[in-house]
Amino acid sequence: MKPWQLIDLPRVQDPRGNLTFVEGGRHLPFDIARVYYLYDIPGGANRGGHAHKELQQVLIAVSGSFDVHLDDGHNTEVITLRRSYTGLLLRSMVWRVLDNFSSGAVCLTLASMPYIEDDYYRDYNDFIKAVGSKS
Ligand code: TYD
Question: Which pTM does this prediction carry?
Answer without folding.
Answer: 0.96
